[in-house]
């Protein structure tokens, strides 16, 4: 069963996937939960590869020995002689990957195809060689917004995919960038994680194309999922249990870990202050977090993003100036008793990203947090993966997509020009504040 509570689909003929730029496995987890069996996982970062090794041995087709054999690999070397491609990559159903963000992000100077870190050409080479029935590529929203910046590059990529037999709408260079972008949304669009059970905005650009031969055989077109049915997830609802557990150890103690004297702040006070702030934001329809930022190895210590993001986190009762130690190594003054509120642990950041609780990140704290912050939220990958599976296994379509609202018109509506790090105003209904008993049950009954 996936972290979302949905049973993993089982097919008579298993669906297969190869993933490039796999990172710590966010997209892989989601696609696994959507019913895809991974034939290979390609990632160059040693810490992320160690995380994959620690988690995938129980997946179909894997074993501890095969997981342990995973080594860091440059995607440019994948499928080259001696590149170490995994076994059985024939009749592939899906090629997926999260190509590097810097070429299309503000922080990366938006050099696009002129950036040596641009791996789209390598992805296209692998697609041409493996000929998967479907392709799913994820990137930062900067490749889409504003449309005029990379519209020519995107049109070239789609043109190459069309030449390889993938179904892509006709797009003319003579059209305005806005019109080209509107038509491209049939296959390449922005998706916000907050619409899929993730308590975080996290807008991402996702490209999905299906090969014409697969569509002809299926007789079912790809339909984008637009939203997970049900209430929107909130920070307070997702973190209440773990935050209370962290504070319980210091329930009647002070910042030094000693029994509190009259008037001194206690772990219970820390928890109640956080709960009040996070609950108030949920009641105001602002219970979704700003986008987590993982940064790079050139960056200093881990924190929760730029100044605007830190202010948004402060409204949610969280200090975004760093990342807390795990509970067994807690420094109460540093990790919990901060004026703005407790810092998040890596485990809590992973919850904000939608990872399952048993996913084990490897490396030291900063390396672990960067893996989390750079990840693609598994619930979003699962949603898109199920939509792809619904084309490749049309007999399971209703079962695969029953929990989602679908964009049956095929073209996404215009999205607001919202700054990525601004705390969004959700459409979640107002809820009652948790009772003074501050129990997890109260939060659930409150609808958080």
Structure description:
Its EC number is 2.1.1.37. Belongs to the class I-like SAM-binding methyltransferase superfamily. C5-methyltransferase family. Residues 428-448 are annotated as: Disordered. This is Cytosine-specific methyltransferase. This protein folds into 2 domains: 15-232 and 377-407, Rossmann fold, CATH 3.40.50.150; 235-287 and 305-343 and 423-446, no CATH class. 34% of the residues lie in helices and 10% in strands. The chain has helices at 26-33, 46-55, 64-68, 120-130, 147-163, 177-184, 212-218, 235-248, 267-283, 307-315, 332-335, 346-353, 365-373, 378-392, 397-401, 440-446, and strands spanning 15-20, 36-41, 94-98, 134-140, 188-192, 203-210, 224-228, 404-407. Helix 1 links the parallel strand 1 (15-20) and strand 2. Helix 1 packs across helix 14.
Topology of helices and strands:
Blueprint: E1 15-20, H1 26-33, E2 36-41, H2 46-55, H3 64-68, E3 94-98, H4 120-130, E4 134-140, H5 147-163, H6 177-184, E5 188-192, E6 203-210, H7 212-218, E7 224-228, H8 235-248, H9 267-283, H10 307-315, H11 332-335, H12 346-353, H13 365-373, H14 378-392, H15 397-401, E8 404-407, H16 440-446
Parallel strand pairs: 1-2, 1-3, 3-4
Antiparallel strand pairs: 4-6, 5-6, 7-8
């Amino acid at each position: 069963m996936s972290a979302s509570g949905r049973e993993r689909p089982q097919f008579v003929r298993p669906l297969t996937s190869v993933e490039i730029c796999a990172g710590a496995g966010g997209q892989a987890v989601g696609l696994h939960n959507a019913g895809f069996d991974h034939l290979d996982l390609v990632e160059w970062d040693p810490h992320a590869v160690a995380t994959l090794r620690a988690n995938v041995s129980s997946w179909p087709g894997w074993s501890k020995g095969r997981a342990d054999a995973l080594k860091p690999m440059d995607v440019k070397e994948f499928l080259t002689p001696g590149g170490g491609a995994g076994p059985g990559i024939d009749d592939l159903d899906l090629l997926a990957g999260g190509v590097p963000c810097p070429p299309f992000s503000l922080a990366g100077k938006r050099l696009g195809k002129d950036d040596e870190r641009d791996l789209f050409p390598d992805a296209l080479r692998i697609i041409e060689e493996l000929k998967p029935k479907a392709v799913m590529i994820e990137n930062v929203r900067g490749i889409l917004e504003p449309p005029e910046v990379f519209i020519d590059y995107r049109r070239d990529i789609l043109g190459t995919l069309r030449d390889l037999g993938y179904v892509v709408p006709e797009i003319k260079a003579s059209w305005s960038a806005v019109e080209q972008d509107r038509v491209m949304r049939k296959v390449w669009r922005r998706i916000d994680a907050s619409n899929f059970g993730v308590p975080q905005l996290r807008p991402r650009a996702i490209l999905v194309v299906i090969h014409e031969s697969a569509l002809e055989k299926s007789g079912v077109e790809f339909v984008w999922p637009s939203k997970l049915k049900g209430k929107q997830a909130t920070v307070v609802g997702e973190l209440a249990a773990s935050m209370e557990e962290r504070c319980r150890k210091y329930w009647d103690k002070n910042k030094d870990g000693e029994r509190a004297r009259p008037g001194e702040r206690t772990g219970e006070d820390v928890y109640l202050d956080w709960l009040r702030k996070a609950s108030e934001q949920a009641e105001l329809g602002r219970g979704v977090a700003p986008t987590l930022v993982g940064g790079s190895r050139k960056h200093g210590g881990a924190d929760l993003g730029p100044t605007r993001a830190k202010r948004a986190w402060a409204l949610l009762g969280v200090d975004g100036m760093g990342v807390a130690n795990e509970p067994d190594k807690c420094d109460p003054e540093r990790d919990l008793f901060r004026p703005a509120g407790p810092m998040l642990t890596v485990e809590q950041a992973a919850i904000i990203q939608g990872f399952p609780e048993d996913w084990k990140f490897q490396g030291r704290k900063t390396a672990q947090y960067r893996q989390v912050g750079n990840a693609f939220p598994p619930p979003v990958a699962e949603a898109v993966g199920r939509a792809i599976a619904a084309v490749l296994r049309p007999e399971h379509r209703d079962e695969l997509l029953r929990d989602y609202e679908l964009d049956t018109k095929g073209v996404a509506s215009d999205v607001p020009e919202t700054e990525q790090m601004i705390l969004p105003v959700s459409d979640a209904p107002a809820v009652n504040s948790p009772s003074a008993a501050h129990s997890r049950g109260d939060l659930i009954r409150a609808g958080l």
